[in-house]
Design goal:
The structure is a homodimer of 192-residue chains.
Chain A (H helix, E strand, L loop, with lengths): L7 E2 L1 H8 L3 H11 L9 E2 H12 L5 E6 L3 H10 L6 E8 L8 E2 L2 E5 L3 H8 L3 E4 L3 H13 L4 E4 L12 E4 L2 H21 L1
Parallel strand pairs in A: 3-4, 3-7, 4-6, 7-8, 8-9
Antiparallel strand pairs in A: 1-2, 5-6
The first copy, chain A, binds a DNA duplex (22 and 22 nucleotides) through helix 2.
DNA sequence: CGGTGTGAAGCGCTTCACAGCG
DNA sequence: CGCTGTGAAGCGCTTCACACCG
């Protein structure tokens, strides 16, 4: 909205963009602690800063990537430069051909270097982009080196110590879900 | 579980794997309509079939992919063969170098062929893997050809007619979320 | 006992609704 | 008026708790 030149914004405008209700937006902003005025709504720039203060990393937070296959490379390219303070600073793979090289601007290390690199760079978040059969083992290794958060692309429920945050990105399930509702929509259309 | 040779399973076992409570599992299975017995729990094979009958496509449901860049190719490779009745049967890109070729076993068409291919193959679900700046336009084009469900990888909230299902896969937000909680976990550790 | 199925209660997020204000 | 901030109500999903059963 900033780039569109907007200075002020009302809760119902934010609501429309986020596909929620205006009451929801106001509630959430209450949590953030930023207050608007009934006359002008919220000041876009200040609001952005207030949210950032609450949610953004205060300094560069390095991220590790494990698995530099098709998916890993795509993630590397996709995330690159998208969030200034969240960057994948180290990638790991067991393929000797990749190790030592640089992919999408990121250095690829051997799996055995994982503990050393993670502790040296102070990494506490990792992305798992390995085959499902290896995901659990990789997760355990990451957690044992001190990682606190995981993004998991493998279609497996990881078993990890509690206190470790796992966010699953399950494309297969997402596709099944959409396909299910799309079928319903088509059926409904036919019924008419 | 089938491949592990399990024949029967109790709700609390399923619960542990899915990281939910056993009551939740029993509730959900009530919805599915499959009944177990207190003695044997659920019969894995029958349960699988009952769930499939409720959720799986009755026949091959073709899916379109728009955008054959890094991400699109990774999605193509990842989804390939994962669900027998959900397959990406057509990919689209505006890059003339890709058009006419085959990527990960999937034919790549020009954007202009989209309506014809979608209607010929009876596609009702599409995956959007184009840059954020083009996602909205692509979504509108897809919807106008009759697509009912979308998976959207672009970090943009798509505005679509209601009745159209959109599932956002937002890696950036997922990473921010995990990074946030990982920071909290680290802080807590320091406090001790 | 240790399971399932399920009515009823619990709980937390979402929405309502309205005072307050320029 | 029209918008914000927020107490209170609403609403659904989740959990409890228990009858029933081999």
């Amino acid at each position: 909205m900033l780039s569109e030149g907007a200075v002020n914004v009302y809760s119902h405008q934010l609501a429309a963009r986020a596909r929620v209700t205006s009451a929801q937006v106001r509630r959430d902003l209450m949590t953030v602690g930023y207050e608007g005025s009934p006359q002008r709504g919220y000041v876009v720039e200040d609001l952005l800063e207030a949210i950032g203060k609450r949610l953004d990393p205060p300094a560069l937070q390095p991220v590790a990537l494990v698995g530099v296959g098709n998916l890993g490379r795509a993630v590397l390219a996709f995330l690159r430069g998208r969030r200034p303070r969240l960057a994948i600073t180290a990638a790991f793979d067991r393929d000797p051909v990749l190790v030592g090289g640089i992919v999408h601007g990121c250095r690829v290390y051997a799996m055995r270097d994982l503990p050393a690199v993670v502790s040296r760079e102070g990494i506490n978040v990792a992305i798992i982009a390995v085959p499902a059969s290896e995901a659990q083992a990789v997760a355990m290794e990451l957690v044992s080196t001190g990682i606190k958060g995981l993004i998991n692309f493998a279609p497996v429920r990881l078993m990890v110590a509690k206190g470790i945050v796992v966010e699953d990105i399950d494309m297969t399930t997402a596709l099944e879900k959409v396909a299910y509702f799309a079928r319903q929509a088509v059926e409904e259309q036919v019924r008419k």
